[in-house]
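Reproducibility note. Readers wishing to regenerate the assembly model reported in the main text can use the exact inputs given here. Chain order matters: entities are listed in the order in which they were concatenated for prediction.
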Amino acid sequence: MNPDDRRYTKEHEWVKVEGDGKARIGITAYAVEELGDVVYFELPNAGESVSQAQKFGEVESVKAVSDLFAPVSGEILEVNPELSNRPEAVNEDPWEKGWLLVVRLQDDAELGGTMSAQEYSDLTST
Amino acid sequence: MIGPGTQLEQQRRLLLMDRSRPGRRGVAMPGLDVPEHDLPSADLLRADLPLPEVSQLEVVRYFTLLSQLNFSVDTNFYPLGSCTMKYNPRINEDVARIPGVAGVHPLQPTEGAQGALELMHRLQDMLAEITGMVATSLAPLAGAHGELAGVLMIRAYHHSRGEAQRTKMLVPDSAHGTNPATAAMAGYDVVSIPSDERGNMDLDALREASDDNLAGLMITLPSTLGLFDTGVLDVVRIVHEAGGLVYGDGANMNALMGRAKLGALGFDVVHLNLHKTFSTPHGGGGPGAGPVCVNQTLAPFLPSPVVSEEEGEGGSWFSLDDPQQSIGRLGGFQGNFGVLVRAYAYLRSLGEDGLKAVTDNAVLNANYVMQGLRPHYDLPYDRTCMHEAVFSARRQEAQGLKALDVAKRLLDYGIHAPTMYFPLIVGEALMIEPTEAETKETLDYFIEVMEHIAGEAMEDPETVRGAPYGAANTRLDEAGAARHPDLRWKPAS
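Running the prediction on these inputs yields the following structure tokens for the assembly.
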């Protein structure tokens, strides 16, 4: 089930607005299922910026290396410190423990271009 | 503990460092005949990097045991699709060991290496003949290296015509992963073209993508589905009409040699894998070679060196040349010469009729296997195949099994796993390439085993899921190995 407390992209990222203009970013359970066991993340550093729909990093699994695309634009406030040592956290829990970035949301309007949980479920079930 | 089997198993697990004992020696060193020097200062020496101290016999046993743990085409049937794990005739090795061939030095002046250069020149001509092209460079050192050479030539061609805006490279969705990677490495934007329901390229999608920015198309023929794209002439025409060039990935040449020429179909550049189609050692067995063959359009751009022949008074003279607008060198010296020699020996020992027979038998064997397996496994593209057939383990998936489980179970019957999960457009793919060299009895055994495993999958899926049972290692923790790599031997504490 895709939680409906957040928004989704067709690139299989989620973004959750957390108040104070902050947004948390991760990849969906569907993406994790497709990737299989994740072994490595290449992520930017806090202080850098991401732009909506632009590549910000890579995820490597036993099957493939895939690009990560930002669901929204903004300055990076936090990078999940656990992922560098335990990338498997994303396999265990992509929705909470396996988050990737927290960014300062630059433009609320960008969320309009993302999908609801229902829309994303429809996309991934076809 | 002493017991039959256990001791052997323990011995197999001992690494060379585990066998090391201080002061033990493998060879008797001759007396010193040069002045003795002190060791460099201590900060240049690493005490934490031990070297094994073992007897010669132990070294022999260690590496012999390792070689016995291997599955290889010399010991077992090896139907690894898209890899053409064919038998490497031993005459290739004989020829490669002729002292004048084995001892030639890459810096030898051309006067003293005329024989080696003549061999390269003849090989260039033979490969051009086989592909229907006009010129060949033997410089690329591997298959993907040949791809890169081909795409860089396409790029150089467009730039030479002032058409640098052509930045789009089309790649069908059935392509080898190296194709889009190569195009990206050469600076191109990769656009994927879908396949239609018969496994051919979708011509409407191709037409739509073919515009003024088109640089070219990378295509494998037969495709990675093991199918001959019956629309290939239209494909080539559409790309050419848009001003693009057609690159042929020669990975599947085992289905075409002597029977169809890519140059005659309109391809502009083709690379060949000598380590697949032309029976030189493959994979861990040694270096590869990925010669590129081109038509008149691309001949000026070939990578250096190309061996050319001049008729003189004393006969032919061979020299190493740089083509006019060459994309340059791709590696040191004259490519992997030892590989070139083996491919030359293969071609000369087969001759034209032999080469045609190779192709015919490769295609016949694949179709024989396809017909035999058809009742037991899903065949997503049910057409006469070329040199390989792509099945799907979808039926077995319903029993909770995956293509991986079928592949692992084959090991228990002395058969190497086929290629799995490729091409990507077939779910749970099992890609089988028997090659021309196998007997009917081997193919029958393989079909029988696959049928048996399909039966096990229905009646006793747990057995299949736990396989292999007879291998030295069973299912490896690949994720664990990638997450926490353990790359160095450390003394047992």
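We highlight two features of this model. Chain A has a mean pLDDT of 94. The CA atoms of residues 39 and 86 of chain A lie 8 Å apart.
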